[in-house]
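Re: duplicated header lines in exported structure tokens

Our pipeline writes sequence and tokens for each protein into one text file. With two proteins the header for the second block appears twice in some exports. Here is an export where it did not happen, for reference. First protein block:
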Amino acid sequence: MSSISSAASGGVGRSVAADSTVSATGGGGGGASSIPKWVYALAIGVPVTAALLYVLFGPDDGDGQTKKKKKKEEEGADSKKGSPVKKESGTAPASAPIKAESKSPASNNAQKSKDKKEEVVVEELTDPLEKGIALKNRGNKYFRAGRYELAIKCYSEAIDVCPKEKTTDLATFYQNRAAAHDQLQNTDEVLSDCDIALNLNSRYVKALDRRAKALRKQAKQIENFETQVEKLKQCVEDITSVCLLEGFQKQENLLLVDQVLRELGRAQAALASKSRKPILPSKHFIKQYLESFAEDPVKKILEKESEGDIDEKENGVDLAGFSRAKQCLIEEDYESIVDACTQELESTSNIETTHLARLLRGTFYTMRKQREQGMEDFNILIDEENVDTKVKVNALIKRASLFIQMCKDPKKDPELSLKDFARAVELDTDNSDIYNHRGQVHLLIEEMNKAIVDFRKAVELNPNHSIAYAQKLFTDYRCAVMIGDVTKVHTAISDFYEAIEKHPKCVETISLAAQVLNSQEKFKEAEALYKKASEIDPNNASILVNRGLLALQSRGDIAEGVRLVEKALELDELNEFALETLGTIEVQKGNLKRAIELYDKAIPLANTELEMAHIFGLQEAARAQITVSQKLGIEM
């Protein structure tokens, strides 16, 4: 959300009400029993803010709340009637093999005698199917008693004697054997038996569920992203099959889909990032991002030079190096800036211009999604001693934001980020950019009070910094909502209107105010503000996307929503927010193939790995739904 993503996730970007917007109009909703069939394809909702993405795609501590609520007794082997057989009290949990309780010699002898009688009964049976069922039933008894090796032996014997044409019974025997292997942590055997069971009965819910969980377990133990993706894709298909066959009635399965899609999205994003091609966002996005820095050294130089008249030639010679880079900024020839800065670094010994060129190159590397190169440039500027303070501080702010964007370790990233901000404060206490961007990081990690303090400080240092003030008001509003203080909610809304009067041309303020009104279901007022923002900035595609979402939420007007989002893409074909939103709408309409195409276009435009992971998850959900519905012959 900070720095590079702030321009897309603030008032002119993703809607604060987006989590409820599209789902409120998709023709369903409510409790688990009435969840529309497309809901799992959304995975974690419609377009969300970068802050929410960071929370959702941060590392899980196991399965989080799911583990806490996990049943103490797991389903075991199928009984004769196909119902689950629960383990008897006193057995170990499913995560560890169970050792039989120690018994007295007399008790052991009695059990052996009983087992022997059962063996005699089974041996006396002549019908192969009856014999197989009897062996299965005996295996179930061993399973319930925690004697898994003996249970496996019985299920294997049942498989051997069962007629091959009795596919349903055979599938049960294989699934039961998989259940026993599962208790012994024999994951390869679990997968092998589930594969056979599903070849025999493709709609076998229990085998699908067991294989999905085994695949997920394997994926967590593998560091290779390609293998992770392969296993998690099959896992998503299996658990999607379970959801379809059960009519999307079980909330626990929908939550499992959600968790696996997050893991799959993260793995795919990590894999895609390694071979990601450099691509800049739209010109409009770049300008918004650059405007979020009031104290940027390069910006300050351009402001001073704007009083003069810079020609394309200087003393009859074509501009080169940093001079050319500055001219490219003015002309919005953003694609040429990295090369011009590189030329400066390779051809001159002027310390001041090389530092500025490196700062500008690092900034554009970051926007081109070449974050490692951007990080390297910022590191050099931060580590060198003879760098101008303003340049070093700007590099610290951008590196601090980059730690969040790269998401290498979501537990340590905020620590590294805040450490850079603290160092920046030591160097330049009165730099408003530090507090504005640090406030966004605090907002991201749910430290609301600290965010408010930072935004207030940014405004105090630079009263004309309207974007910082808008962020402060938005944080006030979020805090008021979190604590349920209606009075403070109304105060925050009133403050937004006052801010609009004070900064009537600030699109960020107007758009954030519209999002707040939208979340309060004051739809007419929100629409009026969005229209006002569009009049001020007619080329702002993200405002049109938010208007489209508003049309969906307030009136259920899908046609108008689609029209506005498509109009946004006409303005800015590189607007990832518009592509993702339109893809989500297409999912709801049942146009899954079209949705996948739109997600394909959005993925390379995502500003962070978190956003990329989110879109990958949405895409894989739609793809799994197509694959599974075709495989099972279920019409969606």
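Second protein block, exported in the same file:
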Amino acid sequence: MRTSAVLTGTCRTPAHRQRYHTCLTMRAQSFSVRLCLCGIAYLFDHPGTVFFAIFMSFWAVTFLEYWKRKNASLAHHWDVMDFEEEEERPRPAFSAMAPSMEKNPVTGIKEPHFPDEDRFKRMMAGSVIIIFMMVMVLIFVLGVIMYRVLISIPLFQSVMFRAQASNIANMSGACVNLILIMASGIVYQKIAEKLTEWEMHRTQTEHEDSYTFKVFIFQFVNFYSSIFYIAFFKGRFVGYPGHYNRFFGLRNEACGQGGCLVELAQQLAVIMIGKQVINNAQEIIVPKIKNYLQRREVTKGMEKSAEPARWEEDYQLIENEGLFEEYLEMVIQFGFITIFVAAFPLAPLFALLNNWVEIRLDAHKYVCEVRRSVSERAQDIGVWFNILDALVQLAVISNAFIIAVTSEFLPRLLYKYEKNWNLDGYVNFTLAYSPPGAMSQECRYKEFRDRDGSFSLFYWRLLAIRLGFVILFEHVVFFISRLIDIMVPDIPESLEIKIKRERYLAKQALQDQEHIMAGGLAGVGEEDEGGDDDFAVTTQGRKAATRTDAGNVYLSVPTADV
């Protein structure tokens, strides 16, 4: 089995047998422990991760392109390609609560109306509440950070838990964060539902798009804020021995000795897998509890019959709440497997396993637990597609920065080029010495700094390479993604031909109808004069016009009485 060059290169030197004092705990530690942590990090942080992140970016773009084609086929099959612009009517709740009636400029029919200016004011007022809730989420994240710092202090002081103090603090903090995420998400969805009703959107599509956007914006901050913190901010503002930065009297968090990428993978695993386990448990338990309460409520006071009617049995099932929760779960999962795939390459595997289980659980729930859903016409999946497209764009930028800033890919690459191609002594090179007199004794910490605490030349060269990598990665991936977008048409060629054919036949039918109508009126005049050539008009309450042309007979719709 081939081992990492980072480990073998360092193990060739006798330094790995030495011990050094870490500035984090001021306790002696062997280089072998540091190598073990680097070996764990190498499971996620190796050159293959770069190519996997690029592949996932292309997969996400291709997935959306082929969904456009599938959506076009379904919309044509169900005859809803122009449903939102031409046919969608005001939703019942809007009609009941609208303050006035005005003529629709398209149909010319009076219908319920709500002023756009008043709706805009309500939307602005609602946005203040949304921002407030997102600030609350950030406060929760800050609370989890302080929890990790405070819980680490007694763990490091304990002889039993000292070796795993950082891992225990990170994992317990991730669990606390998951509980806060799930609880705040339930509360906010209730608030978002009330705000959307208050905004008075005219159609069901507009109402659902507004509600979806509100919930997703909050859930995006709710689920991803702590992950973005670990990926891009944790350990960046710590300072160095003798000049540590503090927040509320506590030293800022530093990444563990395995690097921030290991902690990021832990956070992703806890939140993503924990969310999947909780949701699947809810899919099993919650419908059964609701079903039991519903049957108990319905059967109370009813006479028991030997064979109840089918509609009575169906009424005892719980009400169908729609597919919003299913869409939200899949979109959040899509974000996990695209935005942070460079930090947690196993995310697509866990998503696949979850979807296999989810399909069976949903099938049982919708067949056995809930009432049959009421079908509604829809042109597409609404604002969900725009959200997915935004996630794909964000995923390219996020993966570029994770590879460039959080991982060790570029530092190792630069060390190979400047120092040693076999990475001999790399781990020792990443540890800086504390400034003289800054600590009670000399210690080591993970930074590219000189003895006086200033950044080394290697750090500045690495920073320039990181920025160049981000720009190159984004431009290459966006360029190829654009090519995929151009090469894959949004509408399949066969469907496009079918649509053009239908439009052509519709125009021909309209022209034939106009000719028949004109011919029918002309036939009436000829009959009054005693003539009977090509047209005959039969009057039996309503008149129907016929025309013969080259042996074919055309029948028009009934014409108005003349």
